[in-house]
Amino acid sequence: MIEISNLSYSYPRAAKPALLDITTKIDRGEFILLAGPSGAGKSTLLRSLNGLVPHYSGGTASGRVVVDGIDVFAGGPKKLSSVVGFVFQDPEAQNVLDIVEDELAFGMENAAVPSEEMHQRIGDVLDVLEMTSMRDRQISTLSGGERQRLAIASVLIMKPRVIALDEPTSQLDPQSASELLRYLVRLNDEWELTIVMVEHRLERVARYADRLLYLKDGRLKVDEPVEQGLAQLDPEQGPPLARLSQTMGWDPMPMTTREGSEQSSLSGLDAPNIDTGQEGQRPAANASLLQTLDLHFSYGETAILKGVFLEIRAGEAVALVGRNGSGKSTLLQCLVGLLIPSNGEILLDGESIVGHEVSDICQDIAFLPQNPDDLLFADSVAEELDITLKNHCLNPEQLAQSPEELLDKLDLSDCASSYPRDLSAGQRQRVALGAVIVPEPRIVLLDEPTRGLDYSSKSRLMEIWKQWREDGIGFLLVTHDVELVARACDRVMVLDRGIITADGPTAEVLDSHPIFRPQLARLFPGYGWMTVNDAADGISQQLG
Amino acid sequence: MRLNSRAWIIWVLVVSVLAMSARNPLYSIILLVLSITAIQFYARTESPIRSVFFRIALGVILFSAIYHALFIHTGDHVIFELPDYPLIGGVITVEAIVDGLRNGLVLITLIAVFMALNSIVPSRELVRLVPAAFQDLAVVVMIAVTYVPETRRHLRRIQQAQAIRGHRPHGLKDWRPLIIPLLVGGLERAMKLSEAMVARGYVSEQSVENRAPDKVFLITGLLLALVGWMAAMLWGTIGYLLLTLGGLILLMLLARRGKRTRRTSFVAVRWSAIDTILVITSLAALALVVAPWPGLRRVALSYIPYPALHVPNFQPIVAIAFVLLSFPIFLAVVKSSDPDSLGKRNQKPSTAGGEIRQMR
């Protein structure tokens, strides 16, 4: 179906090539997982399948890409748009029109599909993706998962032979993500659709894919069936299960929960001890920094928060998890004063901060919103930090640690004079973090801090947080990334439709909520093992 | 019932032509009210007119008044006199202020008319109106039309992000933290959208082999039109004939190129009798004001407060035009007794509360 031979490509004015001498062959009906660290060339390779690279991006390409018999470089995106469906990372950026059914018709109009057939196809595709009830909806009222499904529907409707997806689950909660993946697997089976998917979070996708292509610095490092491929990865770059298998020396690597249980029972594990005795791990009750009492908030008629009680103590990292649209971001915005709660109290050190100026609150409570690019505007990284200090009328001398030290801790000393927007996603995230944390707050709120980051950027962030926690800073983390929660948080709260429905030690809460279980907890349900270290220790203890 | 987009566009064009030619404050106010009511009745989204519009309107009008007061120094009613500063020195008059208010009002009316266009007619229908020969242009139109609401949401996000960093906007230079992320982010978004459109087959397709005759037609058509236009000023009829011929050749070229671009349209919104009435009433309103009727005093369409302030006059013939233009409003009022009759799309309240927040 797809044949890539000796593909090399450089972006215009780039110092080094984005892709180097890539050769591979993808058969009809294969599900390919395309992975690699940030900047490795994954998105570029994906775009070379439908001719966006080099036709849209410019630059120079050599080698040959043939998709369904069409030479991509000669054919260009228009010709390939009927063969390769392309789903972008950000569903909001790819909706051209504002009504579901119009959006679906858009591609067909360009392909001159007759009007009656359009109606037919729209009906069919909505049926397959179980979206029939949304036909007339305004796209802006859809949830994140629904939007991503619409993006997929609007490419499927063109009856492509190949569907290329660029991190389609990065904005979805674990349940929406696995639903989306299941739809894709069904299409893969029933329509013999060839799927090529770029994804950072291998733990989400690995079990569905047939083959792993792993890129690094523009070269194809791994091109193997997923099981063998994962085993070849650098332990830091693999999903938890791959790391555990490497630690335990399992061969072959179990891919599904069932295979994993078989593997572990072969290794002679005892049945899980249902009473896992997690109580001993409860963090010491430090002084409470931030507290909310019966917090309510609504937009017009719609109640978003319906009585939230939460507490964050010094040095504690708390995760707030929940479905898309459960009110997590609204809660964060209330905490820093961007939204005024309609009812209830927010106490900082026992004193109410409701109605205080946002800029005053943010000296004590730092908040990192989802998109770091909204924060960054200065000419250099160092200037970003200075500007925040000036905004708060603070002198660097008044601080316990100078901005330079902070940059050093954030691993950004080398690019202190760089233009922030030229940096990688992981670096920009850290610059934005620096820009909100430089006034030395006591609490840090993070909204989806690891979206689109690779494993090594994530590990680096977690090391930084760990240092700050030792200094007594309290963290509240809003995230869909359950692996991150398992590794970095002491306590987890579950927000469901505006109410906190669970609050307790990480292992206990994640284990009791199937949709928020990390990969290893799914593999060893009931053992209370959340991270690779937990599981490795646990298994070696049990096996003596 | 939903009115056809093409009919709406004609209505909007007529209202904006009137807003620009009839610069009498009474007329402007009526047109402004017409546009806002049309939005309230026909907008596809809920409550599209926000207080921010009224704030901007107030700002524009005040700015215009101050500007006129400072730079125009004629009129009988002198309020006070500024010393002899360069440019702004001289008498400040009531007439200049009134003139400024009037100008601001015209601007606001135009903004409101285009808000009506944006909120009533779906952007896809606008793109569909672009002749098939101009696909590239259609892409530009699309990006421009979706840009405004998207930018408003983006600006709000940036304001929040900067407030978190302790930003308190005071002076003009404090706008930098808002403008730079807005511009850069806006460009990035535009790039993403256009990339998505290309990936979905929205690419101009010009076959190279057929271009030469097109160029000949284009040059001939333009030349004829140009010569005809100049000749029309000198010799009249012959010039107009040439101009028409040139125009026909250009139209033929359009059709020729349009035919080559293969596209189809989804859901042809059926043209109903009511749409015809809307077009007829709109065009009639235009004719009433623009054509040289014996009873119409063209000069009095506008309002010039100098040299001395007076009450703007109001001509019955223009009043008839406004009555004609308010046809869609009458229609909406009549139909509103019958629920579900207006063209609002089905808007289920979203259970996904957090998503609502992102859309604001």
Describe, in short, the structure shown.
The complex is a heterodimer of chains A (544) and B (360). Chain A is 37% helix and 23% strand.
Task: For the structure shown, list the relevant keywords.
heterodimer; A: 544 residues; alpha/beta; Rossmann fold; six-stranded mixed beta sheet; globular; B: 360 residues; mainly alpha; 2 strands; disordered C terminus
Task: Describe what you observe in this structure.
The complex is a heterodimer of chains A (544) and B (360). Chain A is built from 22 helices and 20 strands. In chain A, the strands form 4 sheets. A 6-stranded mixed β-sheet of chain A has the order 6-7-8-3-9-10. A 6-stranded mixed β-sheet of chain A has the order 16-17-18-13-19-20, with helices on both faces. Chain A has a 4-stranded antiparallel β-sheet with strand order 2-1-4-5, with helices on one face. Chain A has 2 domains: 2-233, Rossmann fold, CATH 3.40.50.300; 285-371 and 442-512, 3-Layer(aba) Sandwich (Rossmann fold). Residues 274-283 of chain A have low confidence and may be disordered. In chain A, strand 17 (443-447), helix 18 and strand 18 form a beta-alpha-beta unit. Chain B is mainly alpha-helical. Chain B has 2 domains: 5-122 and 271-359, no CATH class; 206-260. Chain B is 66% helix and 2% strand. Chain B has 13 helices and 2 strands; from the N terminus they run αααββαααααααααα. Chain B has a two-stranded antiparallel ribbon. In chain B, a hairpin with a 7-residue loop joins strand 1 and strand 2. In chain B, helix 1 (5-21) packs antiparallel against helix 4 (94-120), helix 1 packs parallel to helix 10 (273-290) and helix 3 (51-71) packs antiparallel against helix 4 (94-120). Chain B starts with a helix and ends with a helix. Chains A and B meet through helix 2, helix 3, helix 5, helix 7 and strand 12 of A and helix 6, helix 7 and helix 13 of B.
